[in-house]
Write a structure and sequence with these properties.
Bound molecules: zinc ion
Helix content: 25-40%
Distance between the termini: 63 Å
Radius of gyration: 21 Å
Largest sheet: 5 strands, antiparallel
Structural class: alpha+beta
Strand content: 25-35%
Length: 192
């Protein structure tokens, strides 16, 4: 019994040592992580994600923040990976089907007193040309960092609706800034 306990404790201690070694290595870079909240950015040293929010560390103080208050997390770009377009894409996870679109429209009209600016609802010619199965997706022509875009993303996160928010064009994927609602589109299987 106690033998098992000590084995576990040892593994735990070793694990912690590894984690600490990694942390102190990361801390040698002075760049901070930004937690973007609805009411502004918050610069922090470390962030760890939980199911219902984030723990963040500033100096020696660790604080929990509710997921609903967080618009997104911005980590400093590693200089070697600037070519990756993923930095310009924000992603949210969850379950979705196109018939859920009504409640998003309802939210948007209620908040902004105008219809949701849809650029694609389900499959479009462009998606077919690019080879994406977009039958269960819809595109909203809003910049993710605009007031309307941020409000929409916050709503999608609160409702656990998956989305991909593009800050710019991605060749073969996005013509410009927009918010794709739904899971990542699968590739159209080659037709014969
Ligand atoms: Zn889309």
């Amino acid at each position: 019994m106690s033998r098992v306990f000590y084995a576990c404790a040892l593994i735990l201690a070793l694990g912690l040592t590894c984690a600490q070694a990694q942390t102190s290595k990361a801390e040698t870079t002075t760049e901070k992580i930004t937690i973007v909240l609805a009411d502004g950015p918050l610069l922090v040293d470390e962030v760890s994600e939980e199911s219902d929010g984030y723990w963040y560390k500033r100096g020696n103080i660790t604080t929990f923040i509710d997921r609903a208050r967080v618009v997104r997390i911005e980590r400093p770009k590693p200089p070697a990976e600037e070519s990756s377009s993923d930095k310009d894409i924000v992603e949210g996870a969850g379950k979705w089907k196109l018939s859920d679109a009504g409640k998003i429209e309802e939210f948007f009209v209620g908040k902004f007193k105008k219809p949701l600016p849809l650029s694609a609802f389900g499959q479009s010619d462009l998606h077919t040309r690019w080879g994406w199965d977009h039958r269960n997706g819809m595109d909203v022509g809003l910049h993710p960092d605009s007031a309307e875009g941020r409000a929409l993303i916050e709503f999608l996160r609160n409702e656990s609706i998956p989305f991909l928010a593009f800050r710019g064009a991605v060749p073969g994927v996005a013509t410009g800034p927009h918010i794709h609602i739904g899971n990542r589109s699968p590739r159209i299987s080659s037709r014969r």
